[in-house]
Amino acid sequence: MRIGLLTGGGDCPGLNAVIRAAVRTGVADGHTFTGFRYGWAGVLADNAVELTIESTGGILTRGGTILGTSRTNPYSNDADGTALVRATLERRAVQALIAIGGEDTLGVAQRLHEGGVPVVGVPKTIDNDLGGTDVTFGFQTAVQIVTDAIDRIHTTAESHNRVMIVEVMGRHAGWIATHAGIAGGADAILVPERPFDIDELCAQLRRRHERGRLFSIVVVAEGATAREGSALAAGGGPVARVAATDAFGHARLGGIGVLLEHEIESRTGFESRVTILGHVQRGGTPVAFDRVLATRLGVAALRAIAAGRSGVMVGLHGNAISEVSLVEALAEPRLLDPELYETAELFFG
Ligand code: F6P
Predict the structure, then answer these.
(1) Is residue 126 lining ligand 1, measured as CB closer than 6 Å?
(2) Which of 102, 236, 238, 330 is at 20 to 30 A from 127, Cα to Cα?
(3) Would residue 134 show up in a list of annotated catalytic residues for this protein?
(4) DSSP letter string over 65-114?
């Protein structure tokens, strides 16, 4: 079988480990691989490379994706994405696709499946907010990067008696903020699932100062919003950095931390500083957990596609890798477990 492979959406540590695992397992079983460059853009433009054992050697530990990625949507502007994709696959005699991506890439995969193109999905996002899997690869790496950053910020916060605001990724869900916040000992964590009240946050920081703790760490997810009816509710995040949205209609977020720096300092009088970690969280080598998970998912995706299955996504459920339908995986984003946030809250203030 000739199998197509692509990575779409934001990159994520572990993508190369998936590619390597699928190709290594598949070649051993007699399959051949076409890697499309830059996600769906490479399929539309027929930009592809042959993937072999040799060309995928030595990439297990590498961050990013050797195939490149983009946020291209084949169905943009009412295009018949299925026909466009099918044309390239036929030209290259590609019989089935493995699409590695998040909600947008996998949404395209589902439409292709409905149109009769055999496709299996592999879930990817550092945000960890995809349904149909207990966890996505890349998330642990991002949590470790943020935790290391908080540890460093801690010492400078303490030296200067400052409120340090650490803005992290997390468009719909506060998984990174909450995990890294717990691991780094944050004094407050603001997440999209729990709109915040700036007055309550400032009161919490003041109480902490009254107890003699003269510095604080506030972790905020980029998608956090002010609670309706509270101060800042109009314009209280998430902050869109540019007016334009991407091909899937998503705003470019970032900057809620800057607003908080200003509001906290002006309301409490405590000197405040923001650090926006941004794409640092997505870069570099994956931690061991993500390498293992990505490898298992790559092998499972290969087995699923080689067995003729389509419209499914492989995911981690408990300790086992199993398949769910793409429809089920994409039905709802996987939001923060309330119990986890309540654990984090025990250590606030
Ligand atoms: O992959 C998800 C994500 O990391 C979001 O948390 C973030 O909003 C977005 O990607 C940023 O994407 P880009 O790389 O296009 O700026």
Answers:
(1) yes
(2) 236
(3) no
(4) -TT------TTGGG--HHHHHHHHHHHTT--EEEEEESHHHHHHHHHHHH
